[in-house]
């Protein structure tokens, strides 16, 4: 198998059929497979994917028991791939299927493990662009991503890297974070970007906050180290202020209200404690969920067994 195409499917009853048909045309002449993962869609996406699997021998279909999220669905799809290269593409036609060949052409040089797509002009909604900017800024510091690299969802991954990614068994997969745990040998190529063909993006404020927290807490020790340094600085500042208070009191150059000092100490100490407890709680929560045996996805059905 030369190429695998993973498509996470959610509310795509109008787009997934035309997308698979175009892939049959633009990838003709290659040994390829298409892995469709239905992420608990409430519409007719599951039945349409089943029809596509029966219609095309290149299509493999997995349906998840409920909606687990895009990254979990992608991880499921990666576990069902066999290709030398694996391409991840969304189901909304914002990335033209023909652009897969651009990623493959770059990968065939053999120089890179991962090829990301980049866009001269993104056609996302402004909120999605804002969220992408925030996530890319966070990942620059948390996982060591190059500043000029855009972490697009449309990308190509070499087989060896995929084999390492699918070893992850936790409930909070972040595909780009897992990629950068394996390799830094990545690049990007420019491809077209189209307006969304149908419906609207499922990218909500709640999902944005969840993703940022997942990247910050689940894939880096950077936040806790920042707060550790901040705590040390506040502790040092407190000692210095305490020394100055004692010297001012002994020399009689300055008088203080007892209540103001008490309130200052309580407020400062309580704020620091709450910050540290919040970060510690996030880490403990992630550890609890990771070791509780909660899987990243649950398969509802897999019509064609993995060969």
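Sequence proposed for the structure above (307 residues):
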């Amino acid at each position: 198998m030369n190429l695998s195409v993973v498509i996470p499917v959610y509310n795509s009853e109008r787009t997934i059929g035309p997308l698979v048909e175009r892939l049959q045309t633009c990838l003709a002449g290659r040994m390829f497979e298409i892995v469709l993962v239905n992420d608990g869609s409430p519409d007719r996406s599951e039945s349409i994917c089943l029809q596509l699997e029966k219609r095309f021998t290149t299509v493999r279909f997995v349906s998840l028991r409920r909606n687990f999220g895009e990254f979990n669905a992608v991880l499921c799809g990666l576990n069902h791939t066999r290709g030398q290269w694996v391409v991840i593409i969304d189901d909304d036609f914002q990335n033209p299927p023909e652009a897969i060949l651009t990623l493959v052409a770059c990968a065939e040089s053999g120089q890179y493990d991962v090829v990301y797509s980049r866009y001269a002009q993104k056609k996302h909604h402004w909120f999605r662009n804002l969220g992408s900017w925030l996530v890319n800024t966070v990942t620059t510091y948390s996982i060591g991503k190059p500043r000029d690299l855009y972490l697009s969802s449309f990308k190509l991954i070499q087989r060896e890297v995929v084999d390492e990614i699918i070893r992850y068994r936790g409930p909070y997969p972040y595909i780009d974070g897992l990629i950068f745990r394996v390799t830094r040998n990545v690049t990007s190529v420019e491809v077209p970007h189209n307006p969304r063909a149908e419906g609207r993006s499922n990218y909500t404020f709640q999902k944005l906050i969840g993703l940022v927290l997942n990247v910050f807490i689940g894939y880096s020790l950077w936040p806790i180290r920042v707060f550790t340094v901040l705590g040390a600085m506040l502790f040092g500042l407190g000692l210095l202020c305490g020394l100055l208070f004692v010297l001012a009191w002994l020399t009689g150059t300055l008088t203080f209200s007892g209540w103001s000092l008490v309130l200052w100490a309580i407020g400062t100490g309580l704020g620091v404690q709450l910050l540290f407890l919040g970060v510690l709680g996030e880490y403990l929560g992630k550890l609890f969920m990771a070791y509780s045996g909660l899987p990243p996805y649950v398969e509802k059905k897999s019509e064609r067994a993995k060969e």
